[in-house]
Design brief:
315 residues, three-stranded antiparallel sheet, 20% strand, alpha+beta
């Protein structure tokens, strides 16, 4: 079975925009449809996204999918994005704004949405050279937060190195399409960043954690570190071979070094970050977090029951 690949020029991946989950999903399916036509789509080329296809890809009822797609038509027509790209003639970086679509509508009798990509979008999804990012659609199918989808795309540009460059809080907010929402850092972390990281760790092929950068006590930016997940069967096999007690639901036989590795695992952080306040020392500093979690694991490992403890050893 052919992989369904979402491929975007990196300038589009790094663009600033705000789209809901359904709007982003329509874009994904349209990109795949454009690729499967096997010829470069031209300006004015019409693409159809059927409710049946949406329902199958995202595991929802056909009627529900069509109603969601119809509601998304207006939002996608009004939506735009800002991006930067090297001008081919001058070699200078140009800063542009564009709409996603020139035309979009729905046909009740066919149960589909029709759209025509804007002329600026077409080369950013079809005429790809060196700087582009590609991933399988299945990696974002389980993401229910629009910010999780965007953050996943932003992070996997750095797949070859396993961590992003530092990104300022202002730039990250822009790329996630946030204007006036969640201005307080506590709300931004709880409602946007931590939620997105948790969904990415649960539903995609990577485990991610972030490091905060500060100017004094003020958070100014983040660096995201991530690793591609190993196969679950391999995880259990490797843990069983590490010389520790084979009961992967306990911490028996684990030393402080192994407990520290568990506490640092991005999935563990995402699963249990609600145990500490985001403004507390453990919520601000990974080293303090690690010490605190080792202490709690030793005191009462039974409070950590979201998955077998020893699964967190391998990442």
């Amino acid at each position: 079975m052919n992989k369904q690949l979402v491929t975007k020029d990196n300038s589009l991946i790094g663009a600033s925009y705000s789209l809901g989950v359904v709007e982003q999903r329509l874009i994904f399916l349209a990109i795949i449809e454009a690729r499967e036509q096997k010829t470069l789509i031209e300006a004015g080329g019409l693409l159809r996204i059927y409710a049946q296809s949406y329902a199958k890809q995202f595991d929802v009822e056909k009627h529900t999918s069509y109603e969601a797609m119809k509601r998304a038509v207006e939002g996608l027509y009004e939506a735009g994005f800002a991006y930067s790209k090297i001008d081919e003639r001058s070699g200078k970086i140009g800063h542009y704004k564009s709409r996603w679509v020139d035309k979009i509508g729905y046909i009740d009798d066919l149960g589909c949405v029709e759209l025509v990509f804007a002329s600026d979008v077409i080369p950013l999804i079809t005429r790809l050279e060196a700087r582009y990012t590609e991933y399988e659609l299945k990696q974002v199918v389980g993401l229910q937060s629009e910010y999780a989808i965007r953050l996943y795309e932003l992070i996997i540009q750095w797949r070859s190195v396993g961590k992003t460059n530092p990104i300022s809080l202002t730039e990250l907010r822009e790329k996630l399409g946030l204007v006036d929402e969640y201005k307080r850092i506590e709300a931004f972390k709880r409602r946007v960043l931590d939620l997105a990281v948790k969904q990415i760790n649960e539903h995609t092929d990577i485990n991610v954690a972030y490091e905060q950068h500060k100017n004094g006590r003020v958070i100014t930016g983040f660096t995201f570190r991530f690793k591609v997940k190993k196969d679950k069967k391999k995880i259990v096999a490797e843990v069983a071979d590490d010389g520790a007690n084979n009961d992967i639901y306990t911490i028996e036989g684990l030393n402080d070094k192994q407990l520290g590795r568990i506490a640092r695992n991005p999935s563990f952080v995402a699963d249990y970050n609600e145990l500490v306040s985001s403004t507390s020392p453990a919520g601000q500093d990974m080293k303090v977090w690690e010490v605190e979690m080792i202490k709690r694991l030793k005191e009462d490992a039974l409070q950590f029951k979201k998955r077998p403890i020893k699964e967190y050893l391998v990442y």
